[in-house]
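Records of this kind hold a single protein each, on a pair of labelled lines. With that in mind, the following record should read easily:
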Amino acid sequence: MSTLAKRLQETMERAGLTQAALARKASAFLASGESVSQQVVQHLTSGRNTNSKSLVPIAKALDVSVEWLMTGEGGHFAVKGGAANLRTSKAARDQARDSERVPVLGMAECGPDGWSLWNGDIIDTIPRPMNLAGAPKAYAVYIVGDSMEPRYYSGELAHIHPGKPVTIGAFVLVQIRPDHDGETPKAVVKRLIKRSATKVTLEQYNPPKKFDIKTDDIVSIHRVVGSGEF
């Protein structure tokens, strides 16, 4: 990291910023009506300009000092070990990107009563929807069957938020224990009607029906907070 251009390039990579993104971020540190153009950033990163007045807002946007950008001394992080720092930051960015996706867990229809076989394996991932923001254990499932039409349709993705309170009237995904050890668990997406210490009452729409499940048979009951198609 012997030049301003190289230090700037590597710091941008570390921050995960493109030239355009850095220009926008740096402009936020200027007075109204002033801005840093992408062309200025391009010239700095290519070494064609080493004495720009835009270095101050650019340094602020990158959380380093102007002195470090110019000379390689001081700054927000140590210069030596920079390659290791960059590897660490790349892993952090990869992890951040992963956190912006939600796993889709597998279910398969197993009968006319609306129950599904609970696979539980990750069969896909989807971009994290807004209703699952900040929910680290969130997941999605494909709706199977038509028992909840017209609320949820077969093939639609239901967004599941395990941390959200399950209240009466909420739509829920309920997983129950299998009848025998070694068998595949079952699950349903239904509407919660009643809940007591010994049982829950669920409702489906098509055909209209209500039924009870013993609390002791339930493995988990998680709230459905939305749906979508991907």
Summary: Confidence is low (pLDDT under 50) at residues 77-98. The domain at 101-228 is CATH 2.10.109.10 (Umud Fragment, subunit A).
